[in-house]
């Protein structure tokens, strides 16, 4: 391995620029005509971004350090990080075989057109006044971007690092040639750069080797090998360091560690080889991720950052000043081809901060922080994305914005969220059940609890799923998603391109193999509801249970830990002794129902009042079987209620109760377990349906009675009540379907009931609709 010599900018020995044979109008085959105009420099007046100098101890924990500085530095959008003095790095790119032997592609950037240009589709007008000098060859092929009608950078020459350094030196020497102020200071280079961008007088073309994937030159950092992992050398420490950008995205504490694919530029770093004025224009990172950039060698880069809290304001300012460009390309900022003056941004109330990144320094950008900049001379940098847990809410906002813009995602936010939740469950269980305490599980458990970052992120996602499934799930079949649904191919909404890892809708009739998100189900097709379905990876009950596990509910934690911890046939019980777990008390329905409890001896007595949710009212049918003295049975009626799960009576789950037309038989009553469609019970009456459910629950309880204490068989249930036919609000809605009282038997009996109530004939204080049920030693009234 031979280190190369980076030529100092003070050395002005002219090198041969004609290294490769290429098109005659390419920059490297032309003399540099433009010259520095120091009297007209336009260096913006800006505050500097924070500069961090972590100690050796702080530097060892990358994510811990970033969490420590986040609250203050996020206000600037970017910050510089200077490693400790004894942290050294051997750059892999200095090997002779790479430096002299490997070529990389470049782009040609017209710096004078980054801001001052006309829309591509605007008709050319005769020039008025002075026009900047340009070299143009009408026979020169247009770039792919130009032929599509959009402004973009043309493909440039291929260089080795050695060749690029020579050309970069030639350009800078020529551009600043003849001025007594040589070498120009960084401040003077910055002023000249913005003069070219804002008030160009000449054409200025430069090369930029940007977004170089791993297979081109590889990484500047050495990667870990099994052989080196056993050694304690400086090289081994460099390979294992979290600041090695090959390791950073998947280090503990980053939710990107739950993405299995090696996404280039996100989880696999890219290289950037620049020269004086090589530019990266205003942009935010994909999915509003963090990014970390390291300047391996060469001359400095000047960065500009805007805090994420002002991202919308920056977009508004640029659209105000560049209306024609945005009218032509509404997604202009996604193209990274438009620069904009920090001075104008500050005048519009957008805070902009400067960072001068020297070789051997990192620059960190925060979520949705717009950033831009340029190189002051030949250099080589490397960058990758990262996602500490605090990124999760930013990522959720990003995919919502992508969906609105129908923009393709590069990773699955839901997959990362579920992965983070599972890791937290595992860490919680290690602490509570095994008594294991280490840096990793302490970090993950710090994001749990009712107000934890991961818990809150999952709650928000659950509410979103719940609101949509209730709309579409009422008429569509609700099916469990296959585990490998999106393992072998991307699954995205046909309308908005939203990732479909958690849920999807489809149609078995007209669109096999195509899916939409729950928000755009009707963009897929308008077939009958019976042909359409909703796929869910986890039921709403399961996601709710996962939230409770993150909050520390022991039963839910044990359930999910057994699923998450691979290779474990059973989950260990907590090492510390606990008071006996009272199943009776713990199985009370959620607070959304009318629940009152009192402790009586060794048993918990609760009043169980079924809380029915009306999904669909249905259509009134005049006929003897479509009503009785107590209730009206509309065709198509649907309701939803919680009751003990027939597969696991230790849990409460949702059931769908519905009425369908069975022809001459009249109404057919059906009850289906929402999370498991195969558990369905049908009969000619509501009572018989729910008695079938009750029987299944009782049978399951009997199986467990020899293993569990205080388990008793259920005694009875009221089918009309479970359907919702005794709920006052539902009764009122049903009666409104028959304003002319055509269901004679029902209305006559109602008059009798009303009359009896007025004369206080019913002396019992208990409702006749409440039947006594006994479960786990609890009387359910």
From TrEMBL:
GO terms for molecular function: histone H3K4me/H3K4me2/H3K4me3 demethylase activity; methyltransferase activity. Its main location: nucleus. Keywords: Iron, Methyltransferase, Nucleus, Oxidoreductase, Transferase. Residues 1-26, 115-147 are annotated as: Disordered. InterPro entries: FYrich_C, FYrich_N, JmjC_dom, JmjN, Znf_C5HC2. Residues 122-138 have a biased composition (Basic residues). This is Lysine-specific demethylase JMJ15.
């Amino acid at each position: 391995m031979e280190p190369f010599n980076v030529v100092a900018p003070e050395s002005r020995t002219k090198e041969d620029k004609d290294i490769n044979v290429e098109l005659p109008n390419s920059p490297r085959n032309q003399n540099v005509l433009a010259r520095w105009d120091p009297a007209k420099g336009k260096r913006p007046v800006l505050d500097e971004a924070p500069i961090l100098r972590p100690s050796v101890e702080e530097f060892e924990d990358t994510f811990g350090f970033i969490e420590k500085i986040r609250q203050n530095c996020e206000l600037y959008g970017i910050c510089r990080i200077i490693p400790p003095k004894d942290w050294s790095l051997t750059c892999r790119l200095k090997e002779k075989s790479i430096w002299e032997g490997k070529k990389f592609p470049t782009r040609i950037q017209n710096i004078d057109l980054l801001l001052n240009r006309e829309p591509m589709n605007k008709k050319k007008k005769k020039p008025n006044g002075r026009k900047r000098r340009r070299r143009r060859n009408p026979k020169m092929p247009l770039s792919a971007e130009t032929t599509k009608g959009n402004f973009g950078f043309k493909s440039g020459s291929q260089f080795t690092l050695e060749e690029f350094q020579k050309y970069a030196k030639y350009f800078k020497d020529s551009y600043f040639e003849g001025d007594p102020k040589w070498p120009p200071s960084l401040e003077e280079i910055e002023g000249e750069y913005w003069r070219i961008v804002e008030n160009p007088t000449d054409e200025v073309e430069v090369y930029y080797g940007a977004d170089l994937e791993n297979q081109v030159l590889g990484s500047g950092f050495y990667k870990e090998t099994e052989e080196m992992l056993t050694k304690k050398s400086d090289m081994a420490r460099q390979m294992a360091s979290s600041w090695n950008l090959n390791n950073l995205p998947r280090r503990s504490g980053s939710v990107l560690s739950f993405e299995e694919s090696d996404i280039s530029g996100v989880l696999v770093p890219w290289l950037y080889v620049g020269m004086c004025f090589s530019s990266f224009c205003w942009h935010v990172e994909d999915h509003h991720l963090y990014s970390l950039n390291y300047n391996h060698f060469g001359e400095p880069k000047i960065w500009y950052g805007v805090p994420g809290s002002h991202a919308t304001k920056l977009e508004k300012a640029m659209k105000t000043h560049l209306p024609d460009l945005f009218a032509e390309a509404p997604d202009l900022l996604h193209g990274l081809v438009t620069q904009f003056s920090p001075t104008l941004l500050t005048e519009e109330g957008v805070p902009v901060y400067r960072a001068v990144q020297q070789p051997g320094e990192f620059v960190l950008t925060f979520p949705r922080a717009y950033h831009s900049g340029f190189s002051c001379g030949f250099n080589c940098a490397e960058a990758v994305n990262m996602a500490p847990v605090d990124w999760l809410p930013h990522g959720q906002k990003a995919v919502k914005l992508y969906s609105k813009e129908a923009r393709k995602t590069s990773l699955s936010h839901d997959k990362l969220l579920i992965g983070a939740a599972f890791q937290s469950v595992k860490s919680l269980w290690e602490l509570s059940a095994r008594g294991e305490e280490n840096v990793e599980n302490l970090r993950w458990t710090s994001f749990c609890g009712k107000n934890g970052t991961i818990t809150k992120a999952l709650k928000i996602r659950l509410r979103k799923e719940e609101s949509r499934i209730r709309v579409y799930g009422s008429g569509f079949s609700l099916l469990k998603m296959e585990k490998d649904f999106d393992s072998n191919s991307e699954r995205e909404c046909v309308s908005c391109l939203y990732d479909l890892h958690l849920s999807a809708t489809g149609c078995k009739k007209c669109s096999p193999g195509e899916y939409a998100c729950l928000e755009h189900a009707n963009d897929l097709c308008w077939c009958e509801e019976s042909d359409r379905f909703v796929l869910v990876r986890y039921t709403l009950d399961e996601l709710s249970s996962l939230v409770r596990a993150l909050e520390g509910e022991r039963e839910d934690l044990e359930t999910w830990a057994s699923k998450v911890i691979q290779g474990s046939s059973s989950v260990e019980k907590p090492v510390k002794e606990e008071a006996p777990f009272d199943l009776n008390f713990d199985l009370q329905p959620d607070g959304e129902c009318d629940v009152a409890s009192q402790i009586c001896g060794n048993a918990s007595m609760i009043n169980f009042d079924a809380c029915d949710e009306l999904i669909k009212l249905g259509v009134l049918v005049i006929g003897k079987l479509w009503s009785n003295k107590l209730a009206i049975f509309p065709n198509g009626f649907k309701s939803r209620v919680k009751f003990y799960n027939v597969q696991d009576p230790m849990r409460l789950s949702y059931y769908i109760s519905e009425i369908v037309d069975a022809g001459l038989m009249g109404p057919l009553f059906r009850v289906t377990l929402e999370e498991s469609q195969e558990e369905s019970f049908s009969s000619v009456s509501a009572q018989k349906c729910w008695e079938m459910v009750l029987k299944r629950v009782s049978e399951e309880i009997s199986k467990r009675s020899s293993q569990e204490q205080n388990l008793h068989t259920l005694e009875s249930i009221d089918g009309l009540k479970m359907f919702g036919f005794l709920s006052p609000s539902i009764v009122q809605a049903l009666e409104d379907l028959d304003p002319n009282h055509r269901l004679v038997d029902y209305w006559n009996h109602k008059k009798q009931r009303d009359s009896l109530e007025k004369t206080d004939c019913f002396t019992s204080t208990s409702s006749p609709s409440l039947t006594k049920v006994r479960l786990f030693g609890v009387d359910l009234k």
